[in-house]
Amino acid sequence: MAAFRLAVVLLALFVAVSQGLDLPNKDVPLLVKTLQNLHRGPPKQTVLKRANVQEKWITQKLDNFDDDNKETYEMRYLVNDEFQEEGSPIFIYLGGEWEIEASMVSAGHWYDLAEQHKGVLVYTEHRYYGESVPTSTMSTANLKYLHVKQALADVAEFIKSFKAEHPQLANSKVVLAGGSYSATMVVWFKRLYPDLVDGGWASSAPILAKVAFTEYKEVVGQAFLQLGGQKCYDRIQNGIAELESMFDNKRGAEARAMLRLCNSFDDKNDLDIWSLFGSISNVFAGTAQYQRPGDIEYYCDYLLSFRDDATAIANFVYWGWGMPSCIDARYSSTVDYYLWAVNNFDAGRPWYYQTCNEYGWYQTSGSAKQPFGSKFPTAMYTTLCADVFGSQFSNEQINSNAAQTNLDFGGMSPEVENVYMTHGALDPWNPMGHGVAEGATLIANASHCADFSSISASDSAEMRASKERLAELVSEWLA
């Protein structure tokens, strides 16, 4: 039974990596695939009853801050008005770097709260993601219209237009929800447009821009240590260290064979090595970031079933990478893919642009307090910015961009009211957000965006308490 459960969990990891990619006619290099997995949307909700979710569109300005630019684009949104009545509050879920889908306004805790308050549910799609693509290509020149300030201005215009189109909602109160990057948007929207919303729920919101996000892999390691045990943590650390040593000590051919790398992989090229080990660490990161009760324990059982450390790592990541005939871990393939995506829309390119231009958040190996080795430094990620988007994205400029984001939005001091921030205590993103000392709620053993489902008997005491606290706050905001 345990073996069957393990196979199911490993298959789910492979499917999650694969389904996060809408990539016609193009092989996906390893680093791109693993980064895509880390930036898929929040978990889909289990829909128990049929809801009439309508797909609609709103005309938005291409540039919200240039009155001389008259260009527009069509932004998609989803509406569920099954509970709507005169004066209903408006429950808006903000889309992030993913394609919106109906379950988020058809089920889950936010849906339940809308039902309780007879609210109308809306899910907005972020410019440059899903079907809300405003330019004919994703060239660097066209991506200048991709910025969180533009996306927040889109939401502000949406709220005003939605109320204007529905006179019965003209005086309705508005509450926002978001997960991950869109949770960050909830916080920042309340900072920039406080009069347009009455409250917000930010689940797993990183609010501090930071280029070298070393804390991320530390928390991933802690998740495996806390849930999987010291032997599992040691196996990961020792196995990756052994693979690093093999490449360093002229055993590269042996390591390439163990990892099933394509013949084109160049173990004398630092960028190829960095890309490989970054991708190895990302398999563990994806496991921790989206772990559910029991997942890590089963992964650790699998890792500990092998006789030696390096073999365990090689087999585990091969599963996580989707078991292709050979693994394309070349750095140049990542660059080629993101350049291909100029004319072939894929969420990976615009999101990577946002990291270069606004946030950083590169999950690097710069800390010794994690078990994933030392061979995916910040330099790999910043070099990729320049190679994909142009030499203007120097290391100095990327750091300056992140500093500007913190200046614009207050970093760890956003100075907002009526925003409830929640984090999983084992969410690798939580170091970039508020902690208990700042008034946020940390949910024991939970990870990233883990609290969107309806209140249920399977919730931990901490999870249930957090959901109930949100319900109390929403009632206060809408009173």
UniProtKB/TrEMBL annotation:
Q: Which UniProt keywords apply?
A: Glycoprotein, Hydrolase, Protease, Signal
InterPro entries per UniProt? AB_hydrolase_fold (IPR029058), Peptidase_S28 (IPR008758), Ser_carbopepase_S28_SKS (IPR042269)
UniProt family annotation: Belongs to the peptidase S28 family.
Q: Name the PANTHER family on file.
A: PROTEASE S28 PRO-X CARBOXYPEPTIDASE-RELATED, RE36938P-RELATED
What name appears for this protein in its UniProt entry? GL12647
Extract the signal peptide range.
Answer: 1-20
Look up the domain of life of the source: Eukaryota
Query: Can you name one GO molecular function term for this protein?
Result: dipeptidyl-peptidase activity
GO BP annotations of the record are: proteolysis
